[in-house]
Amino acid sequence: MTALCPFLKKYKKIIKEKYPNVKLIEGTHETSITESEFREKVNCAFKTGKQMADIIVGKI
Predict the structure, then answer these.
(1) Most buried residue among 3, 8, 47, 59 by CB atoms closer than 10 A?
(2) How many contiguous H segments (helices) and E segments (strands) does the chain have?
């Protein structure tokens, strides 16, 4: 969600304003690719019909 959600910044802003003492955590682990790389791989998956997991881990 952190790479593809177009509303992420909006959601974060609203939550921080409403609940300033809540710590927001984006994701549960470090990513191994950049946001632009992820978007490129998603586009590739849609264009080729390949499995997204295989594209991300480099099997395809």
Answers:
(1) 3
(2) 3, 0
Residue 11 counted as domain residue:
no
Domain hosting residue 35, numbered range = 30-60
Rounded distance, CA 36 to CA 38, Å? 5
DSSP-derived secondary structure letter, 56: H
How many domains in the chain?
1
In a domain, 34, yes or no: yes
What gap in Å lies between CA 48 and CA 54, rounded to an integer?
A: 12
Q: Per residue in 41-53, pLDDT tens?
A: 778 777 877 776 7
Q: Which residues neighbour 21 within 8 Å (Cβ) at sequence distance 6 or greater?
A: none
Task: Please state the φ and ψ torsions of residue 30, each to the nearest 5 degrees.
Answer: -70, 140
Q: Angle at Cα 34 formed by Cα 23 and Cα 42, nearest 5°?
A: 105
